[in-house]
Amino acid sequence: MSKKEMIAMLLAGGQGSRLGVLTSDMAKPAVAFGGKYRIIDFPLSNCINSGIDTVGVLTQYQPLALNSHIGIGIPWDLDRNNGGVTVLPPYERSDDANWYSGTANAIYQNIKYMENYDPDYVLILSGDHIYKMDYEAMLDFHKQNKADVTIAAIPVPIEEASRFGVVITDDQKQITDFEEKPEHPRSNLASMGIYIFSWPVLKEALIKLKDQSNCDFGKHIIPYCHEEGRRIFAYEFNGYWKDVGTLGSYWQANMELVDLIPEFNLYEEFWKIYTKQDLIEPHYIADSAHIEKAIIGAGDQIYGTVQNSVLGAGVVVEPEAVVKDSILMKNVHIGKNCYIEKSILADGSSVGDNTRIGVGEEAESKLNPKVYAFGLATIGSNTLIPANVTIGKNTALHGATDEGDYPDGKLESGGYIIKAGESS
Questions:
Q1: DSSP codes of every residue in 7-28
Q2: Which pLDDT tens digit goes with each residue over 203-229?
Q3: Are 254 and 266 contacting, i.e. CB atoms less than 8 angstroms apart?
Q4: Any idea what the Cα angle at residue 263 is, between residues 128 and 154, rounded to 5°?
Q5: CA 300 to CA 356: how far, in whole Å?
Q6: Cys bridge to 85: 78, 99, 374, 406, which one at CB 3.0-4.6 A?
């Protein structure tokens, strides 16, 4: 392999448990976003737009959808003979089966992959944020400061800072201290989980801490480098950045895309977002259809009303159905005369005629109030919902449900139906 100045390692193994049934059968970075994209398209596109042509994607949890989406990297122009994109699942060694046990442990297990390219710098990324960022500008900053480690940080409102790892810097942006989710933050600069390491520094830290259980960048590697007196700098980023780790933030980030002037622009010529595009027919809008402020995917057939919603490819909305403030992923079918409000329906879900989803008063989820909140109805992939039923808010459904699952034709707010074999 020929030498590379900087390679990227993209951590895409996350289970994304706070996305509930949306990640029952796929890793969080593979979840659909903005109609035609998946979350992982954003960091991958950032890499190619920043001139980084060698990316290792570390997968772990339910990697099938992710692996087939990435393939050999053609949509991102990452199908290279030297470099390109490589999917790096955990592999079993002779002594024991070694799953990745922490973000840094995952990188440590792939030290040989990195050594192949003898890089000067390694960029560490996570696969579950929506943003556009020029990593080359961050690398320039790293070099100018003769840094050993550079951490991308974003200013957040001080009252929200306690949700993040916070960095404290001097006037030169050199980091003097860290606070992990502090109660009384001394700074509003939150770590974005994006790091550039000079390769010898990263390698030394990974080897030194290889026996640390659940070895993690934020908790172990960065503090170790700090104790060793390494030069650690904060690169301040002021663009759009969203952690779509909860159903509420995921729903909100999608809804923002249909604003008249979206805060996050998917249509910029000079910073394209690339994705694997299945070749499908154009969409069809019937004369009975009524559409306001919506993203409509390829191959969609709209006969009813769609307002303020984001639709993936191959969606059918039958006559007299109403879809409001909702996310419908690929190949969702909405029957006649349905009413769908503030709901997320994952790939391949089907809703029978005259069914109402996301209606009534809110009530706390009986399944998991931390996950199923925000007044949303969340429906996992390939879920079947029969005709003539009513489903409330903060609800969760997954699997092939039938009339017998709905006493009096209802699933009350806060209720859930998870069929055997489906996890929540």
A1: EEEEE-----GGGGGGGSSS-G
A2: 999 999 988 888 888 889 999 999 999
A3: no
A4: 55
A5: 21
A6: 78
Residue 395, CA distances (Å) to 31, 285, 295, 361, 411 in order? 19, 30, 25, 12, 8
How far the first Cα of the chain sits from its last, in Å, is 43
Question: Of 236, 238, 237, 233, whose CA–CA distance to 145 is shortest?
Answer: 233
Q: Contact 58/27 with Cβ under 8 angstroms?
A: no
Instruction: Kindly report, residue by residue over 94-124, the tens digit of the pLDDT.
Output: 344 455 667 788 888 889 989 999 999 999 9
pTM: 0.86
Q: How far apart are alpha carbons 253 and 153 in whole angstroms?
A: 20
d(CA 328, CA 326): 6
DSSP letter at 75?
A: G
Single out the residue of 284, 343, 373, 349 nearest to residue 25, CA to CA. 349
| Cα distance between residue 10 and residue 108, in whole Å | 13
Whose tokens are 């994209």? That residue is 37
Residue 353 near residue 388 (C-beta atoms within 8 A): yes
Residue type, 210: K
